[in-house]
């Protein structure tokens, strides 16, 4: 609701993906820090366990990423899928990048890949009838479970 009520540009003051690495993992919801990219929970998740993979560099689109960034984003995405299968017992994933505001990117200036766990039973009448989506876990609890399950 915080995201919806803030309007179309809730994050204009400071790039949240540039600010996150300077914070503690708990405060930024970071589950893993790599060399060129890191993984964090989406503050406004579509489903429980919704992760984002972001390069540290502030670049808007995938074609501007270096080969090292592309490789690490891919490797972190694979690891995130394995971890979510273990922790959340999900049945599938939606994975993607919205490039630019016109394509639906909430933070268009900083590249980020979505990894959304899906379950066979995760759709119900709430979004249609009540315009509500139930997210059954607190972000801090999900962050701890994913971070603890991340391979060392």
Description:
The protein is of the alpha+beta class and 152 residues long. It has one domain (2-149): HIT-like (HIT family, subunit A, 2-Layer Sandwich), CATH 3.30.428. The chain is built from six helices and five strands; from the N terminus they run αααβββαββαα. The chain has helices spanning 2-6, 16-19, 25-28, 67-88, 126-130, 139-149, and strands at 30-33, 37-41, 51-55, 92-96, 113-118. A five-stranded antiparallel beta sheet has the order 1-2-3-5-4. Strand 1 (30-33) and strand 2 (37-41) form a beta hairpin. The chain starts with a helix and ends with a helix. The mean pLDDT is 86.
Provide keyphrases for this structure.
single chain; 152 residues; alpha+beta; HIT family, subunit A; five-stranded antiparallel β-sheet
What is the element layout, followed by pairings?
Blueprint: H1 2-6, H2 16-19, H3 25-28, E1 30-33, E2 37-41, E3 51-55, H4 67-88, E4 92-96, E5 113-118, H5 126-130, H6 139-149
Antiparallel strand pairs: 1-2, 2-3, 3-5, 4-5
């Amino acid at each position: 609701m915080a995201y919806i009520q803030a309007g179309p540009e809730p994050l204009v003051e400071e790039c949240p993906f540039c600010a996150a690495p300077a914070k503690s993992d708990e405060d930024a919801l970071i589950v893993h820090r790599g060399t060129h990219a890191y993984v964090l929970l989406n503050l406004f998740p579509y489903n429980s366990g919704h992760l984002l993979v972001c390069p540290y560099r502030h670049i808007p689109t995938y074609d501007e990423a270096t080969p090292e960034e592309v490789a690490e984003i891919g490797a972190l995405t694979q690891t995130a899928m394995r971890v979510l299968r273990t922790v959340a017992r999900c049945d599938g994933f939606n994975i993607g990048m919205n490039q630019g505001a016109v394509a639906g990117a909430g933070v268009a200036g900083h590249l980020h890949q979505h990894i959304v766990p899906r379950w066979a039973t995760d759709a119900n009448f709430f979004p249609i009838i009540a315009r509500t989506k139930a997210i059954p876990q607190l972000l801090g609890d999900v962050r701890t479970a994913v971070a603890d399950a991340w391979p060392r």
